[in-house]
Design brief:
Order of helices and strands: EHEHHEEHEHEHHHHEHEHHH
Number of helices: 13
Length: 304
Amino acid sequence: TRRQIWSIGGGKGGIGKSLLAASVAWQLARMGRRVVLVDADLGGANLHTCLGLPTPPRTLADFIQRRVSSIEEVLTDTPAPGLRLISGAGDLLSAANIKHLQKVRVMNHVRAIDVDVVLIDLGAGTSYNILDFFLLSDVSILAVVPEPTSIENGYRFIKSALYRRLLAAAPTESVRDLVESALDPKNPQGIRTPVDLLARVEAEDAESARVLRREVAAFQPRFVVNEVRDIADVAIGHQLVAACGRHLGLRASYAGFVHHDDAVWQAVRRRRLFMSDAPTSRAAEEIRQLTRGLVKGESLGHGY
């Protein structure tokens, strides 16, 4: 298998995104993949705690501040064979707002790590740094929980990521101006959705419209619903996929869901990952199913 970059983002904090990232990375390693888990929640790193590790002696901050020359120098072994960690820059107050050249350097080094999968755990929100790491990925995963704020923020995250992608791909200055204008929901051109934007670009420049349509087709985010408690919660993933298709013109997919499980928080309180602490738990089995589906590129059918 060729090297892949995966990322897990979320529109808001407190949705279990870091635990999800740690668990999927752990399962990938159990499946024989060589995995590096990157804590890119810059300024609020806690993946090492999810894995039951003390604060590593070297973190992403050392790489950003050029105290080390190679990102491999900040790799930390974990209890899981085949899984290593790059801990986030929680001790660097400016890390959440790293400069463009620093971000490009991090992204280039992440691309070059010699493993099967690099899995990036992103911070909450829609800052440009977070969106750019999300768009860097071969497999872009968006986590939500069954709460209105999480669902709304998750949809906005995907919309913002799409516009960020289109902005980067805009072939001409005039098309770039149109994309930037579309970011304002009250823009004078009356552009309300990416579908409206593509129609407007098509009217002005057919070749540019083809470029942007290729970008839309290539962007295929995958949704995961965490903390599911009943069948109505499971349906949220299907609803988000439908909304992305209808309003954004995206071919998103529903990767899976994980039920609320007391075994998870009990393991967290013991500073252990539930995948190893409670391997027979419902959540652990669902993480195994979810990870296998992500590897195969499968999507949940509406029968779930």
